[in-house]
Protein: Lipoprotein
Amino acid sequence: MKRIYCYLLTLIIFTTLVVTGCKIDQPIYPDGTVGGGTGGGGSSSNFISYTFAGKTTRIESHIVFQVIAPGVVPEGSTQIIGGTEPANLFSIIAPTAVAGTFPNGLIAVGTDLVGEGTIVFSTLTSANGFNGTLKGTFTGQMNDKTGSPAGPISGSFSITN
Structure:
């Protein structure tokens, strides 16, 4: 239980840093798309795409990842965050600093949904924790803020910082 609190604390700090960063008025995109262009990752090919409750959402702005080396709390983890407002934030924390498949990752969507799932990092390179490439997929089971099951989630990501 102590481990999940470390992950949640790190997620909250990381989310706060991203959300409180410079804010530029965002253009309006079609339903199901959060942002567009080059925000956060510097390349229009950066994205997080997920399907939950029959709706597919694609985030294309304000996407970053951080790799924390072993020996630093949380012990060897990779974090992904994307989105422009608390209601549309998406984040993943996986207990690894290397590519592979990890069955106990934390997935959060907006302010009301959190769950666990399997995170697959097909590519994970990072020179200093922030710069590099991260690609992969995820599946999981989400719960609402009361802890009740809210349904399955699945998706993919491709990020180059």
Notes: The chain is about 10% helix and 50% strand. The chain has a mean pLDDT of 79.
